[in-house]
Design goal:
Blueprint lengths: L1 H13 L5 H46 L5 H7 L17 E2 L5 E3 L2 H5 L12 E11 L11 E11 L10 E8 L7 E2 L6 E2 H15 L13 E3 L5 E3 L5 E11 L35 E9 L19 H5 L20 H17 L4 E8 L8 H4 L14 H12 L13 E7 L16 H8 L6 E4 L19 H13 L2 E3 L5
Parallel strand pairs: 5-10, 5-12, 12-13, 13-14
Antiparallel strand pairs: 1-3, 2-3, 3-4, 4-15, 6-7, 8-9, 10-11
Length: about 500
Amino acid sequence: MKRNNHSFIVRLIQDQRAQMLPVMALMVIVFMGIVALALSVGSTYSQQHALQSATNAAALAGAQALPNATAATAAASYASSSGDENINGTLKNVSMVSGWPKLECLTTLTNEGIVCVAPANANAIQVKQQITVPILFGGLFGGKSSTTLTATATAAARGTGSSVSPYNVAIIVDATSSMTDTDSDSQCSTSRMACALQGVRVLIQALSPCSGALSSCGTVTAGTLGAGNVAGSVDRIALFQFPNVSTSNVADAYDCSSTNATKEPYTFPTAGATTYTPLSSSTYEDVGFSSDYKTSDTATTLNTSSTNNNLVKAVGGKSGCTAMGDPGGEGTYYAGAIYAAQSALVAEQAAFPGSQNVLIIISDGDAGTTDSGAMGSAGTGGTYPSTKQQCAQAVTAGKNVATANLYGNGAIPTRVYSVAYGAESSGCGQDTSPTITPCQTMQGIASAPQNFFSDYTATGGTSACVSASRPTSSIAQIFTIIAGDLTVAHLISNSTT
């Protein structure tokens, strides 16, 4: 009997199965904590993402309303508080942070040509929202039971429409002999000139000839240099080319004839002039500033009426009508064309106070004509106008017209876009001290890195010439992006000053 009792006690002492119960209980608690943490992190991330998206939308809505004084109200209406347009079932009790939305006049945007005008006197808007979210089981484990999430978004103002500053847009098209070459790139696969003008048409289609509140822009009044304008015009567009063409037959650029305007030697407009007047024999300007390119702001096609609309005809927008040609023959030198376009822009801005100036140039960038007749009275010292350092002169011209208080700009600089079309890896033969490539030239002309584009896949182009900011290589897509810059509000860094 004693032996049996002893065996039972030994077995009881040696049996450790019940000791796992506390361990298992602890493991369950730890496992629950891990699950709770994962769920909390996932939920917080999801709500932060949703809050940021809603804040972005609110900022864009406000920027799209600039420069109206109602921009802040528009932003608030697209926030995520109760009753707002971006209320989200996963976001409970979102609120706008006190002091926001903020209307901003940012120097960076002003320097890019997005100016601050009345009544809002702002070119950007910043929105900041917040929400308090629970932390699952946070209090159970001694932590916080909730946390506050915030999201901030800043958007730059758009460019066109019925209630924003109008644009004066000068488009310079390279019309030298290289533009007759075929671009065998599958994105266009026709002559470089035809491909370039296709991009220009994309841009023109996106701009606003008159107020978006009007069902029709109304009667067109003919002006000088083939221009046509409507009452209450918004965005006015002029077409320039280089080399110069004869004033006696410049109309051949838009009269639907198959004859090209006659090339003329290069001329050298005064840098800083406040108006551009073609010489009696030659002109860089094919069509003056026009607003008759669409019948209304919402029209989905270009205006192809048989009268006026010379801008549309010149860029190939009218079926069966020959567009501007390539007189060629004079080699490439385009500093003069840049100064001519800028002088015309300054005059247009003076005629329409509060408007903003934009200059767009498309070329392969390879300046360096050696024809003494083509360069006329140019000097040889390397500064404008000169037969030496021709690419460097173009870069200087681009920088000058894009700098406030220089060359007739006053306080509002010109926003300069450059499109390198098949820019080769070498060229600029007259630039020897220092040397420069065609691609570097086109990069230097642009007023900001994001304003430089390159169709590097075009025949003759090089993959070494790619826009770091916007690497698309389609001419049509490039001009779509430029149009977006001018017509659509866009998000920018919250740290932009």
